[in-house]
Design brief:
The chain has 436 residues and is an alpha/beta fold. It folds into 3 domains: 104 residues, Membrane-bound Lytic Murein Transglycosylase D, Chain A, CATH 3.10.350; 151 residues, D-Maltodextrin-Binding Protein, domain 2 (3-Layer(aba) Sandwich); 129 residues, D-Maltodextrin-Binding Protein, domain 2 (3-Layer(aba) Sandwich), CATH 3.40.190. Helices cover 38% and strands 17% of the residues. It is built from 17 helices and 12 strands. The strands form 2 sheets. Strands 3, 4, 5, 6, 7, 8, 9, 10, 11 and 12 form a 10-stranded mixed β-sheet that branches. The protein has a two-stranded antiparallel sheet with strand order 1-2. α2 packs across α3 and α10 crosses α11. The longest helix is centred in the N-terminal third of the chain and has 18 residues. The radius of gyration is 22 Å and the shape is globular.
Length: 436
């Protein structure tokens, strides 16, 4: 029985610290010991048991792979999120564990961008996240590369993909930053991205999930879908409660009280659409979307905007990424955050170099920096609470991933994006007059 990616493991991956000289558990003898995987085991769980720290999981992963290279009774673990019952692991002792983590930390430090005032030029960025975060990231990047002039444009995920398609023969941007990787997968499939083997790829927590196989894109953050309900509306309507299921949203009491973006312009909304199609299957999923759309008051262009509109009292419920709900709560809007109990979809936000970029060397510097721990801890400074994708960066709101996540298939969603968006637009709701 394989143990695939779940939120428990994602939560365990939210940060990594170099282990100190002592752990909670007593030292092992003889350099380590063998262990046979049991049901409900995870590398993070075993790390806590043996070292007193869930974040020491890379020690067991790397040590087992090293044993497998010299002893056929061990099997290499290509994906640390997947271990099998009956599989034999190697649990290093304290001294070896500390040494391995120190070596790993040194590798990441050596690969981290150091910056230089001598680097000059111009860089054009297509940014998908909120303007405040775009401006903040650019400002922080310029602190280490002050000689680079950065021009940037902010667009929604769907708009940005359309722009790249339209400019394929004469690209105007060097870097694409932000937005769910479904769009990046679709773009890579169409030859719009330039693969780049960044030295900072060593930082990625889960390379199989969080970067393209050919390095055409890299994951830079993680966010889960949630529901934002106006608490004033709940107080005025005691007969209803904040939704805790996808099926709650198609009930008659929410008729005309829901806001969500349109999947043609928003990666957030497309994540919701593809989540439903995976949870319910194609036939039932499209039928659900028809019922859901009939309860929507208005579709917006931006994926995060519904949380703000609902907080201002324009509707009762918004479907957005949970970190965007937190942002509006921090801004003082009366919102309650809930999650669908049956499972919710999530995004991995991406970054990539555009095929035919005019400034490819500077674009590489941006990507190197974007997948460094320092860059990924900047978000909360600019009201962006997504979780990081790199080891060494701490999440500001780890509870946003402590929910029931579905096994979201990014390849399925990315490869079918155009067809699914076209069907939604043609059969369910057109993209005219989207609220901005």
């Amino acid at each position: 029985m394989k143990r695939a990616l779940t939120i428990l493991f994602l939560a365990a991956l939210l940060s990594l610290v170099v282990l100190g000289a002592a752990y909670a558990a007593p030292p092992q003898q003889g350099g380590g010991q063998e262990y046979t995987v049991q049901a409900d085991d995870w590398l993070s769980k075993l790390a806590e048991k043996n070292y007193g720290d869930v974040l020491a999981w890379p020690v067991i992963w790397q040590a087992t792979n090293a044993k497998a290279a010299e002893d056929t009774s061990f099997v290499a673990i290509p994906d640390p999120n997947v271990i099998e019952v009956g599989q034999k692991l190697w649990i290093p002792d304290e001294a070896e564990a500390a040494m391995m983590l120190e070596e790993f930390a040194a590798e990441r430090t050596a690969a981290s961008p150091q910056g230089s005032a001598d680097v000059t030029g111009e860089l054009n960025i297509l940014c998908v996240v909120q303007p405040e975060w775009c401006e903040g990231q650019i400002s922080e990047f310029n602190k280490i590369y002050p000689g680079i002039l950065i021009n940037w444009v902010r667009m929604s995920s769907g708009e940005s993909l359309t722009r790249l398609r339209n400019e394929a023969s004469n690209p105007q941007f060097d870097v694409w930053w932000g937005g769910p990787v479904d769009s990046y997968i679709a773009a890579a499939q169409e030859g719009l991205l330039e693969p780049y083997d960044s030295p900072n790829a060593v930082n990625i927590r889960d390379p199989k999930l969080m970067k393209a196989p050919d390095n055409a894109w890299y994951g830079i953050y993680i966010g889960s879908l949630g529901f934002a309900t106006n608490t004033n509306y709940l107080a005025e309507h005691p007969e209803v409660q904040a939704p805790t299921s996808w099926d709650d949203l198609i009930k008659p009491e929410w008729k005309g009280q829901i806001m969500i973006a349109h999947p043609s312009s928003s990666g957030t909304s497309y994540t919701q659409l593809c989540t439903i199609l995976q949870l319910k299957g194609q036939d039932a999923g499209w039928e659900y979307q028809r019922g859901f759309a009939s309860n929507v008051l208005q579709f917006t262009k931006s994926g995060s905007a519904p949380a703000r509109f609902v907080g201002q009292g324009e509707a009762a419920v918004a479907v957005v990424f949970s970190h965007d709900i937190v942002t509006q709560q921090e801004n003082g809007l009366p919102l309650q955050l809930t999650f669908p109990a049956e499972g919710t979809g999530y995004e991995i936000g991406g970054t990539a170099i555009i095929k035919g970029a005019q400034h490819p060397d500077l674009a590489k510097l941006w990507v190197d920096w974007a997948i460094s721990p320092a860059a990924q801890e900047i978000g909360p400074k600019y009201q962006a609470y997504q979780a990081p994708t790199v080891i060494g960066a701490s999440a500001s709101r780890p509870e946003l991933l402590e929910v029931n996540l579905i096994n979201y298939d990014f390849e399925y969603c990315g490869n079918n994006k155009k067809d699914f968006v076209d069907r939604f637009t043609n059969e369910i709701a057109n993209a005219d007059a989207l609220k901005e």
